[in-house]
Amino acid sequence: MHITLVDDSIPFDGYSAASRPLGGAEKAFASLPGALARLGHTVQVFNRCRWGMHIESAQWETFDGRKPLRTDVLIAYRKPLLLEFVRHAGRRALWHTGPGRLLERPAARAMLDTHKPLLLLVAEAQARDFKAKGLAAGLLPMAVRPDYLSGEPRPQEPPRAIVTTHPAHGLDWLLDLWVAKIRPRAPDSELHIHSMTLAAAAEGAETDAALRPLAAKVAAAAAHGVSVHRPQGDHLMAEALREARVHLFPGHADDMGCFTLMESQAAGCPAVIRPLGAASERIADGVTGYSAPDDDAFANLAVLLLTDRSVQRQMGAEARALWKTRTWDTAAATLEGWLK
């Protein structure tokens, strides 16, 4: 099949995640073309990359590059308007990573009603506030990149918790909980916050007014073992996850990807989550991590994984086992079956 994928967001390509931090949604888009090409398909990718290039047997083109006159399958990423990117398509699919309700907006609904695409969802939670109304929909198996599937966990001393959440997605809440209820019971532990925005603020860069109070709180929390780190490309981020005892994931109601939570699970780092968005779908509760029903439970479970090496080791091993087959090749094979 000739398969065309199109994204209209930020500049990146199939090599970007290896050399610089990249959002989970962008990494997912960058990972699928090569996996489809390995199945023998002819794959073209259009996005805001700087120039055309051949990556993992898929041809990447700039967004304004020459489009194919026809394609067997057009996969539009996130934006329903992209369903019209190629005029003649044997089949169209919309790969949606946001809350389901966004597809109920009039402009989005009009595109869906006109083209009747296959909906590729990333979480069951997306279906809670969206009615397919006759459209075919499938839950694309979630996958992680190879860096997170290789290597062995090697938690460091002193015990380390890691957080990768967006600063606006519960970090303020987590800092309060860390200072008041977690660190006092694990006094040698550290909290490593991986955030480009907060790292820039710590280095003296101008910060958005809405985030200045949080940046100040983070700086003050240094006395409680809190430090800020710049996110890195996949290889170094995988190492950071393997060195942590626990991934603390506050979550957000609109987070349907929870991409970094998948990566930490694959790397063998157990998690404590709040059951928001799709977070509960990324762990096996009580096996590879814990879903905490309230603040006290979250703190208690974080302390357990920071201080009980036996529990932490067992959960980490279970997480790695659960995710070891969740590759993009597997996801591509599932998608191929739906498209035939």
TrEMBL record:
Q: What is this protein called?
A: Glycosyltransferase
Organism, scientific name: Paramagnetospirillum caucaseum
